[in-house]
């Protein structure tokens, strides 16, 4: 259950680093000597230098130190009527009726460039698992059509996640900044697949296999969609939370040169070729 500690920065004393994390302005400890994870997984203690009151959740804006005003697309009147978690799924609600049918899920994943099998899998996982929780916002009876309800999407929040969405679907800037402060080992402003995996393990709660599986599926899909040179950038991940990245990917694939990020079958072939050549040597 423990996270692989070699991936996190080490501290012999267990004290915080004032230079890297702004702890010199704090009047309380952020680490404890008897819990080494507190010194290995540092909080973003300087987030308030860029974001006003970062511990207060934003209802309709996903903000970061690099984008303290959020995405321009989220500041329109229609988008401001939705929480950030609702904005995250609006890409799949094309007709705006507040209901995401299994077919909507499938079409959305196809528009993002996923193949038929993965899109079918995503449809089964998402609509199969999240239809009833979101349906509870309107009825106790399960939906025979397995629709996901945008108005009840906050009820689909699960355990063992990053905590960036709160229980009402708002966006917590502090938790988003902590994600990179804790797990971006090389301070590159991005997360590798390995770092995402260690983050998933570090966030696991006891007796929560559903939450573990959901986190693996969500962040695994995110890596497949957004990675560039093996890493997911902080800005791309921020735009994933408010859903604006999905529309950009769709537009890029329909016009111009297409979406130039993600892990595609051609990358798998290239990876196999590199390993084959390395084995021959």
From TrEMBL:
Residues 1-49 are annotated as: Disordered. GO terms for molecular function: calcium ion binding; monooxygenase activity. Residues 8-19 have a biased composition (Polar residues). Belongs to the caleosin family. This is Caleosin related protein-domain-containing protein.
């Amino acid at each position: 259950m423990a996270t692989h500690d070699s991936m996190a920065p080490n501290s012999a004393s267990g004290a915080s680093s004032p230079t890297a994390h702004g702890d010199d302005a704090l009047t309380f400890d952020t680490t404890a000597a008897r819990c080494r994870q507190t010194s290995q997984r540092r909080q973003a203690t300087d987030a308030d230098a860029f974001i006003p009151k970062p511990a207060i959740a934003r209802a309709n804006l996903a903000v970061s130190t690099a984008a303290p005003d959020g995405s321009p697309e989220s500041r329109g009147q229609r988008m401001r009527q939705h929480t950030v978690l609702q904005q995250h799924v609006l890409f799949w609600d094309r007709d705006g009726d507040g209901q995401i049918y299994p077919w909507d899920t499938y079409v959305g994943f196809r528009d993002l460039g996923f193949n038929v099998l993965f899109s079918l899998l995503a449809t089964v996982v998402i609509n199969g698992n999240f239809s009833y929780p979101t349906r509870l916002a309107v009825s106790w009876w399960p939906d025979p059509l397995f629709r996901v309800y945008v108005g009840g999407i906050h009820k689909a929040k699960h355990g063992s996640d990053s905590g960036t969405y709160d229980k009402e679907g708002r966006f917590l800037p502090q938790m988003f900044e902590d994600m990179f402060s804790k797990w971006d080992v090389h301070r590159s402003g991005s997360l590798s697949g390995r770092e995402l995996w260690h983050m998933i393990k570090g966030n696991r709660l006891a007796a929560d296999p559903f939450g573990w599986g959901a986190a693996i599926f969500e962040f695994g899909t995110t890596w497949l969609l957004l990675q560039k040179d093996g890493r997911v950038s902080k800005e791309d991940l921020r735009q994933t939370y408010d859903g604006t990245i999905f529309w950009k990917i769709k537009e890029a694939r329909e016009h111009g040169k297409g979406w130039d990020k993600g892990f595609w079958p051609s990358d798998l072939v290239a990876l196999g070729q590199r390993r084959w050549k390395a084995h021959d040597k």
